[in-house]
Fold this sequence. Notes:
By secondary structure, the chain is of the alpha/beta class. It has helices spanning 28-40, 62-79, 91-100, 114-119, 136-140, 147-163, 183-188, 192-195, 218-231, 241-257; strands at residues 7-13, 45-49, 84-87, 104-107, 125-129, 171-174, 200-203, 235-238. The chain has a single domain, classed as Dihydropteroate synthase-like (TIM Barrel).
Amino acid sequence: MKKNNCQIFGILNVTPDSFSDGGKFLDEKLALDQAQKLFDDGADFVDVGGQSTRPGSPDIPWQKEWEREEIILKTLLKTYPNKISLDTFHPETARRFFELGGTILNDVSGFGNSCMRDIAPQFAMIIVNHFPGKTVDEVHEQKICSINQVRDELLFRKEQLLQSGVSASAIVLDPGIGFGKTMELNWELLKFPLLVPNERVLIGHSRKRFLGEKRFEIDTNLCAARRALDMGAAFLRVHDVFEHRKLIFEHGENACHK
């Protein structure tokens, strides 16, 4: 029986101030238990982040970020090799993750830092986010309204990464829903896979503000995910893994019977 081949990144924030689950998983045991739950619920990968990117969140030095993550990453990489992604824009954090055995790097700042592009070829998979600015505050002040601009800027970044030695097969594009876009464009970005049919696209819609007042409700998130699946998303990055895994299965079932 054919299933939809979209894969899931479960979100694990080890931060005190993330917009959805800040402070819940700072404790090592709670974080490891949550990672186990995400995998049990059907995640293909778990994306670990120690720096919040919500509007107004303070930048922290890489040392503080690494302090939050190190023990958790060491344990997870032993238990789930090649299944743990690191969400960071700090080159030193990325380097230390690689030295522990990390193979998947998710740079929310889109590899705008040349030092991150130098590190990128060492990883088996890199996720390139559309991040229109140099800082989180600068990005959230933007109001980009053109999906073509997002496409062109992401493809430009891809070319830079190829020139840095990254394999094309390692690159995943993320249109950066919620980062410096209008609410209308955020909805439109759910169809981003159609604009880049030769690329693998990750959609990170989960609980984000463009979903409206009911953004923490499952049905609202599944509505956005269904559209992304219809458009050909290769990956979803979500908080509620179990429900999205069920949706992906059902989506594949429906496609099989059409």
